[in-house]
Structures are given as C-alpha cells and as structure tokens.
Amino acid sequence: MSEEVIFLKLKNNVSRRPINLFFAEIIIVLLFFSISGAVILRVFAAADEKSRKTAQLENVIIYAQSLAELYSGTGDIEKCAEKVWTNAIVRESTPEHVSIYLPDEKTTFDAYEQSEKTAAGELSTLKMVFSAEGSEIYTLSCKAYISGEESL
Amino acid sequence: MKKYRNKSLSESIGTVGSMLLFMLFAGCTLMIIAVAAGTYSRISDNFDKTFGASSALRYISNKIKSSENAEIINGGDGIRLESGSITNVICFYDGGLYENSMATDSPNDYKGERIFELSGLEIASDGGWYKITVVLNGEESSTYVRRGDFSEA
Residue A8: its pLDDT value, please? Predict the structure, then answer.
C-alpha cells in the first residue's frame, strides 16, 4: 500500500468520524428518551386508573351513605336499594343476603342482614359490601331499630 | 471528481439521517406531551365532576342534619334551615350554590356567598327523607338524608 493511499484512507476516516459520533450520540439520546417515554406513559396510565378508581370509590361512598340513612329508618334493604337505584339488576335476594348489579354494570353490591327480635322490637344489622373487578372496594355497617309496634 | 461526489452524497445522507432522527425525537416528545395533556385534563375533569358534586351533596346533607327546622324553597332549588337564632338559606342560582346566613328574626333578600359551582340542584321531600340531587357537567348525583329530629321532616 502506497503512502498516498494510506494518507487518503486516514483523511477519509477523520472526515467521517464527526458524523458517526453525532449519529451515535443521537441514537443514545433517542434510546434514553424512548425509555423515559415508556416509563412516563406507564405512569400516566397508572394515574388515569387511580383517578377512575377514586371516582368509583367516591360514588360508592355516596351510595353507601344514602343506603345507611334509608336503612336506619326502614330496616328493609331491598326497598332502600330500589329508591337509590331505580334500574339496578337484582342477582340474588334472600332474607339474609341481597346482591345487586349497580347501573354502571361494573360494581356489585352485597348486603348481609342479621335480625334480632326482642319483645321491644327488632334490631337489624346490615353489612354493605361494594365490589368491583372481583375485589372489595368499600364496606359499611349500619343498624336499624324498628320498635315493637312498627315491626308487628 | 467521483470521490468528491461520493463524499458529498454521504455527507448529505448523514445530514438527512440525523435530521430525520431529530425529527423523530421531536415528534415523540410532542406525542408524549399531547398524551400527558390529555391524561391531565381527563383526571382533572374526573376529579372536578366527582368531588365537586360529592362535596356539594355532603355540605347540604350536613347542614340539613344539623338543622332544627328545614323548609324547601323556590320549588326545590333551595332550602331554608333554622338552627336556633340563625337561619341558613342555601339555594341554586346562576350556575352556583349560594348560602346566606342571617338572624332568624331579621330575614333579608341577600342571596349570599357563592360556595359551589353547579349546573343544577333539586331538593325534594321523600317520605321522611330529603332527596338531594346535584347536577354537575351533565351528571346527576343524589343522596338521601334525614334530619336529627326525624318526625318533623
């Protein structure tokens, strides 16, 4: 290889290096930002999901409070549920357990009732459980006392 | 001459390639910013809708519960609550919920302070309960409440 050829090759390498370096730098930066972007998108998705669950929980709490208010005066959970959700679908209804699909069709409501009859009246204890996607999201217990005259 | 042309071509390709990469980076950044803005606005709207309505419902419920006497006014757009010598008038007017506290023996027509932004309010007496319905951004939320002295509701 002649000296002239070696010189030309070296010259070419020197003149190409800045572009190659720039390419490498850009690719590294892009890689870094792509990873950051993926992480950020996951965080956004998690925040969105959290916000949706918070809204759902807030709605459920309002329902539970309304039901507790109504139940403490009537002692009849089915009537209370009919007042709160006019178009809910009843899945199961026995004296001890009422299960309802809420109008949003994602949340289920289960009420477990225990009654204790005495000479003075009837004391009922109700446990309300709201579930979504197979897990409990909110639970509230309340009691209703119906005096002897009213419960007869 | 040919070598110079090749060199110039490779430089051009390098420049265009790096510009394309930069544009790709800029496009991705803009896309992430757009997604972030969308997510933020959705979360913000959701929070406003949920907590705006539930805060108003809870506020009115607590006021009704703690009152000694309640009277629905303006065809369900408001409620007058008496607690001892103080009368509170809570009513919906001009896209907001207003509250005016005054001495029971000196009523006035002042509509009060704006406390919540709402699209609608309806208070109805249902059996022994008050049904409060709040409308915010087209969505209705309702709750039932009864006063401490149940017999008068």
Answer: 58
Which strands sit side by side in the sheet containing A135-147, from one edge to the other? Answer: A89-93, A97-101, A107-117, A121-132, A135-147
**Residue B145 near chain A (CB below 8 Å):** yes
Restricting to B residues 104-143, those with a Cβ less than 8 Å away from any Cβ of A are 126-129, 141-143
- Give me the residue spans of the domains in chain A: 3-151
CA distances from A77 to A104, B1, B145 (A): 20, 94, 16
Q: What is the pLDDT of residue B153?
A: 41
Span A26-80, pLDDT tens digits: 788 888 888 988 898 899 899 989 988 998 899 899 999 999 988 888 888 888 8
Distance of CA A55 to the CA centre of its chain: 8
Residues A38-67 as b/e (b if ≥16 CB within 10 A, e otherwise) read: eebeeebeeebeebeeebbebbbbbbbbbb
Provide the β-strand partners of residue B141.
B134
CB contact (8 A) between residue A69 and residue B144: yes
B84-117 pLDDT, tens digit each: 888 989 999 888 999 988 887 777 777 788 998 8
User: Are B150 and A34 a contacting pair at CB < 8 A?
Assistant: no
A13 has pLDDT over 60:
no
Which ipTM value was assigned to this complex? 0.75
Q: Which residue of A has its CA nearest to B131?
A: A66
Alpha-helical segments (H) within chain B:
2-66
CA distance B77 to chain A (A): 20
Q: For residue B43, give the nearest of A15, A41, A48 by CB distance.
A: A48
Q: Do A40 and B32 touch (CB under 8 A)?
A: yes
